[in-house]
Amino acid sequence: MDKIGKLSGVYTIQNKVDSKIYVGSAINIKWRKYVHLRSLNRGDHHSVKLQRAWNKYGEDCFLFSIVEVVEDKDLLIQREQIWIDKLKAYGRRGYNMVPLAGTNLGMVCSNETKKKIGAKAKGRIASDETKAKMSVSSPKTRPPLSKEHKKNIAIALTGLHPSEDTRAKMSAIKSGKPRSPETCAKMSASMKGKNTGKHTDEHRAKISESLKGNHYALGYKHSAETRAKISAAGMGRVFSAERNAKMAATLRGRKRTAEHIANHSAALKSFYANKKLMACAEAGCPG
Is the pTM of this model over 0.70? Predict the structure, then answer.
């Protein structure tokens, strides 16, 4: 690999055989090159893909180059991200393990790696200085994420589907957890204006079309016993005044189609006929 001086900027490690590339950034590229070489030769480089290629082709097949000198250190990560996107260093064409510069979002560790990390962390006691840093970086005290940062996180998580086990754990953690009044207020504020309850004619037509017919149990018919139970369960049900007012407000001004009116009429006739039969049966009327 070529000799590189002490500079700050964005660099690449490129495979001369298949042109696959790794993109990184550093304040001191000369030192970062040494760190990469040491890890690759020891066989413990953080990029598994780059390590495998290094083991297969050898050091002579790789070229370490500077693609951009960045004097402003605050722009390093931003410029690295631009080069990752430009050279497509993530995915099948590159050796970068995650699509975002300066983060591990999107990286999936193997079970073996997780066990090693867990074993290494056991018994570790954080110093007061470390605890202070952790406190500052906690979600409650750190500044809110920028829109660009949130967008990058969303891109990194796109396509990731949690396993059933993970979903069960997430559900168990949230189950029974009460929301604070502050959280409820924020959720309420975020939803205001999103759904006014008024749909366009086109939207209504789509909703109506999607609800037509029985989509979930096509061809299934309830037995007479089941229909009787459903009817009995609905008899005598009294709605609150508030609910009646909401239902009336929702239906006010709504125009029903001829088909709807016919269906409603048929349903009412059937309801009263069944009610009459049930009253007769209770009174012991002759068949």
Answer: no
